[in-house]
């Protein structure tokens, strides 16, 4: 099935088909396209990676990361006032109280909630959308863990830190690599259906930047499978883990000693606000793809607006590596309906190669992601050997038909069922025709700074998952994020429970930090009347925005 | 749904916003009965945003995997009911659509399903006896946006083939469209979920190598090795990194071992 492609595109695909037999023969003989040296990597990054250029960045003028040059869209949110700054709510009678309050119902938040519950704590989990509407469900490719004979946490560590250009925080990488096999054991015991050999051994593959095969998967729905099982497990404990959906957190509460002491939640449906007092708070709000840095399309879910960063930053927590963003090398650039959506790295892990308009391979398919992305951008914008779609988007071919040819008929359908369906809907059979791809905004490498027990700068405030930074340094390898969120989600749950058990004395609740933050904004002239967190993106077109008159509506 | 977040409207966003090409053809669709003109080729989700909806419910991953945006529709003049995911279905002229923001699913308590003494098939039958009331109409299968043969996996569970049901239901994104349509009030997605968890925990062998490695970790085997890496200067670290041996792509499970085995 190919009627999804235009005749012009089909004509170009013939060149990919022409070079395929030779590329296949080389792949079978184990002759890969040569990987880049560290020098070559540096060169292509400096010239073509969006992180390494100066456009779209600005100096941040407030808070613990003052003076850092960060993406403009993020600086806009950080240099802004709280939605409730002028309200002054009564904090003396909280609406709810709990031991542990988890903000976010993705993988990190759910793992944290389960762990804190197992340690005997009462948990409230507040999520913006439904539990599981998250980046976690979207993870297709897999999760890394060094559990096979030729591998060990030592090599996993090396791959992570090399992939991150040796900038990663040592303690976090060591914790993650070491916990990984235990995480797999935990998931298996909860009934996650991983891809396995008949004897129970999990199937493993290479990922970009790995020296051993340690990518575990559950079809091409690894994140969804993990998420639906973890979610089901929390539903088994409805009383100990109270779920408040469609109720995003909008600010943290501190006590008069500056310790974290709860949150303000916003019920989006009744438009009411709740004061929740908590002995400990765990931020697990995920990433920032929906800020659309520099107008890039993104792979993230609808709620990835960086709320946790904003709340934590206003309360005084330091962020790290926020200038470093991951562009996934293979976002869809055709058909238009799928633009920005991820084509998992597993496709390359299974042997699909990237080729240019001439059908020639131009890069080792499994370079670290930033290098791979920069190489694709160079091929299209620097060397002008990319393909242009009917809507004017650039792209290169990802030769997916190689997969069936290398591993047998039916492999694409079996190993990549969701992707196969997604393209089939628009008339393209990816087992028979290559896909057109271009880098897309994918992952926030940086975030709230944590220690190896998921603790932040603020006492009794913990953070886990994509909203944190340090473990991946300046570049994350595929499969290490699903791992990261579970390792540090569990560690956060444990650390919070430990703090609760040790006994927590709380002073009076306060939102003074918001007032002070607002004052600083006014004094420094940074106040542009913006308010945050963003909560939901606004995709209305100009025409609609014009009709949304700036008046108080009589309808709540 | 009015826009709640007026404050940040000025933040420029083009990433996912629709900018129809100048010569775009417009078509008429009906969103919950109301007529709107939208550019053709948009997905239902983007068409609704185009006319001014800001989603709270019925929008999650926007990539066809979270199951939040299940949608029912008819086409003017056609008596059939169609289903699809709003983020994956392209608008058609005369489409009359409504999303399913929530539906009360029956979920049995899944506590103890992982290590129960009851045989897996009996367990499923006890948790969800309503599967035996399946009338075999096949509406679930026709409704599924993932192309799953839903009726078949329910049949497999009925027959006691829990592993078969688990595999057949694997692609389920739990959108619940089949559940809404089922005349026997079966909650297919929950049956599949329970079946998969039971199958993975009880019917599929556990991974021995994983267990062994986890035990090695718990015994502290890698702590000194990892601590040493933390002490190492960057040049030395780079040297070890660049000289690490790479496992061949096509080696079978447990087949290949590196020359240097001092850090395994
Ligand atoms: C398309 C895609 C594919 C990926 N593939 C892989 C892969 O193959 N392997 C891998 O390891 N990683 C992969 N990743 C990365 C990985 O999935 C994510 O980094 C990870 O799942 C993030 O988990 P999290 O729990 O930190 O955040 P999320 O899973 O995003 O969860 C965050 C949760 O917080 C909620 N939230 C946000 N703001 C608020 C608020 N103010 N109040 C309350 N709740 C809030 C959100 O709604 C959401 O439920 C992929 C990511 C994407 C987008």
Textual characterization of the structure:
The complex is a heterodimer of chains A (556) and B (264). Chain A has 556 residues and is an alpha/beta fold. Chain A has 2 domains: 7-51 and 329-439, Succinate dehydrogenase/fumarate reductase flavoprotein, catalytic domain (Flavocytochrome C3, Chain A, domain 1, Alpha-Beta Complex); 96-324 and 445-510, FAD/NAD(P)-binding domain. Chain A contains 16 helices and 22 strands. Chain A has helices at 7-28, 38-48, 72-78, 107-118, 153-163, 170-190, 222-235, 307-314, 346-349, 369-382, 402-407, 411-415, 417-424, 480-502, 512-523, 542-547, and strands at residues 57-59, 69-71, 81-82, 96-103, 123-126, 143-144, 215-216, 241-244, 249-255, 260-267, 272-283, 319-320, 325-332, 354-355, 387-388, 394-398, 435-444, 447-449, 461-463, 468-469, 509-510, 531-532. In chain A, the strands form 6 sheets. In chain A, strands 4, 5, 8, 9, 10, 11, 19 and 21 form an 8-stranded mixed beta sheet that branches. In chain A, helix 2 packs across helix 10 (369-382) and helix 4 (107-118) runs parallel beside helix 14. Chain A starts with 6 loop residues before the first helix and ends in a 9-residue tail after the last helix. Chain B is of the alpha+beta class and 264 residues long. Chain B folds into 3 domains: 12-99, Ubiquitin-like (UB roll) (Roll), CATH 3.10.20; 112-202, Alpha-helical ferredoxin (Fumarate Reductase Iron-sulfur Protein, Chain B, domain 2); 207-259, no CATH class. Helices cover 33% and strands 10% of the residues of chain B. Chain B has helices spanning 44-51, 120-127, 139-143, 150-158, 162-168, 177-181, 188-203, 208-218, 223-231, 234-242, and strands at residues 26-31, 34-39, 70-75, 82-85, 95-99. A 5-stranded mixed beta sheet of chain B has the order 2-1-5-3-4, with helices on one face. In chain B, a hairpin with a 6-residue loop joins strand 3 and strand 4 (82-85). In chain B, helix 4 (150-158) packs antiparallel against helix 5 and helix 4 packs across helix 7 (188-203). Chain B is flat, with a radius of gyration of 26 Å. The relative contact order of chain B is 0.10. The model of chain B is unreliable at 1-13 (pLDDT under 50). The interface between A and B is large, with 120 and 102 residues. Flavin-adenine dinucleotide binds next to helix 4, helix 7 and helix 14 of chain A.
């Amino acid at each position: 099935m190919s009627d999804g492609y235009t005749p012009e595109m089909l004509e170009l695909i013939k060149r990919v088909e022409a070079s395929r037999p030779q590329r296949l023969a080389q792949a079978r003989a184990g002759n890969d396209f040569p990987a880049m040296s560290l020098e070559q990597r540096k060169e292509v990054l400096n010239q073509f990676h969006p992180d390494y250029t100066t456009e779209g960045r600005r100096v941040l003028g407030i808070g613990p990361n003052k003076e850092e040059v960060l993406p403009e869209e993020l600086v806009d949110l950080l240099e802004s006032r709280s939605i409730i700054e002028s309200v002054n709510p009564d904090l003396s009678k909280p609406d709810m109280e709990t031991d542990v309050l988890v903000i976010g119902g993705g993988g990190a938040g759910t793992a944290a909630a389960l762990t804190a519950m197992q340690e005997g704590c009462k948990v409230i989990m507040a999520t913006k959308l439904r539990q599981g509407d998250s980046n976690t469900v979207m993870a297709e490719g897999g999760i890394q863990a060094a559990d096979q004979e030729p591998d060990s946490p030592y090599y996993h560590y090396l791959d992570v830190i090399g992939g991150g250009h040796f900038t990663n925080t040592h303690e976090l990488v060591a914790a993650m690599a070491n916990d990984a096999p235990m995480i797999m054991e935990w998931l298996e015991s909860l009934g996650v259906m991983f891809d396995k050999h008949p004897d129970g051994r999990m199937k493993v593959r290479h990922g970009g930047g790995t020296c051993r095969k340690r990518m575990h998967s559950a079809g091409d729905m690894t994140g969804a499978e993990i998420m639906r099982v973890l979610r089901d497990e929390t539903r088994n404990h409805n009383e100990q883990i109270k779920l408040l959906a469609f109720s995003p957190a909008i600010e943290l509460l501190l006590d008069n000693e500056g310790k974290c002491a709860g949150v303000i939640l916003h019920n989006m449906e009744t438009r009411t606000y709740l004061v929740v007092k908590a002995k400990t708070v765990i931020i697990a709000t995920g990433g920032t793809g929906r800020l659309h840095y520099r107008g890039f399309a993104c792979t993230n879910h609808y709620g990835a607006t960086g709320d946790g960063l904003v709340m934590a930053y206003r309360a005084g927590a330091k962020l790290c590596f926020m200038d470093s963003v991951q562009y996934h090398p293979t976002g869809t650039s055709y058909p238009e309906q799928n633009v920005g959506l991820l084509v998992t790295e597993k496709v390359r892990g299974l042997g699909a190669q990237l080729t240019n308009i001439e059908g020639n391979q131009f890069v080792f398919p499994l370079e670290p992601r930033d290098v791979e992305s920069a190489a694709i951008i160079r091929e299209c914008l620097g060397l002008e050997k990319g393909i242009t779609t009917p809507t004017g988007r650039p792209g290169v071919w990802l030769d997916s038909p190689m997969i069936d040819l290398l591993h047998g008929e039916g492999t694409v359908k079996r190993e990549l069922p969701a992707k196969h369906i997604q393209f089939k809907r628009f008339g393209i059979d990816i087992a028979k025709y290559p896909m057109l791809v271009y880098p897309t905004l994918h992952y926030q490498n940086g975030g709230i700074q944590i220690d190896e027990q998921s603790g932040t700068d603020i006492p009794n405030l913990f953070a886990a998952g994509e909203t944190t930074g340090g473990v991946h340094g300046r570049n994350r390898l595929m499969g290490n994020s699903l791992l990261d969120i579970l390792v540090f989600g569990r560690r956060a749950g444990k650390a919070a429970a430990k703090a609760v058990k040790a006994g927590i004395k709380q002073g009076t609740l306060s939102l003074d930090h918001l007032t002070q933050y607002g004052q600083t904004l006014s004094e420094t002239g940074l106040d542009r009347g913006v308010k945050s967190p963003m909560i939901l993106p606004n995709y209305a077109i100009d025409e609609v925005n014009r009709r949304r008159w700036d008046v108080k509506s009589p309808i709540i | 749904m009015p826009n709640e977040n007026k404050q940040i409207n000025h933040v420029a966003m083009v990433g996912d916003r629709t900018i129809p090409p100048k010569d775009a053809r417009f078509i008429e669709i009906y969103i919950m009965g109301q007529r709107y003109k939208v550019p053709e080729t948009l997905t239902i989700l983007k068409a609704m945003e185009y006319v001014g909806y800001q989603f709270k419910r019925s929008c999650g991953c926007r990539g066809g995997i979270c199951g939040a945006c299940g949608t029912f529709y008819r086409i003017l003049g056609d008596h059939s009911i169609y289903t699809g995911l709003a983020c994956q279905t392209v608008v058609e002229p005369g489409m009359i659509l409504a999303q399913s923001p929530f539906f009360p699913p029956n979920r049995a308590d899944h506590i103890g399903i992982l290590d129960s003494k009851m045989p897996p098939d009996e367990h499923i039958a006890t948790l969800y006896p309503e599967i035996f009331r399946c009338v075999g109409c096949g509406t679930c299968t026709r409704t599924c946006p993932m192309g799953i043969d839903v009726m078949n996996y329910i049949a497999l569970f009925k027959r006691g083939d829990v592993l078969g049901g688990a595999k057949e239901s694997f692609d389920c994104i739990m959108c619940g469209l089949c559940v809404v349509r089922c005349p026997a009030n079966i909650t297919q997605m929950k049956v599949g979920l329970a079946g998969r968890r039971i199958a993975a925990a009880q019917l599929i062998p556990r991974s021995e190598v994983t267990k062994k490695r986890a035990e090695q970790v718990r015994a502290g085997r890698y702590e000194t090795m990892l601590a040493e890496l933390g002490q190492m200067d960057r040049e030395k670290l780079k040297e070890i990194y660049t000289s690490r041996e790479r496992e061949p792509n096509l080696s079978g499970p447990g087949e290949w071992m590196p020359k240097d085995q001092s850090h395994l």
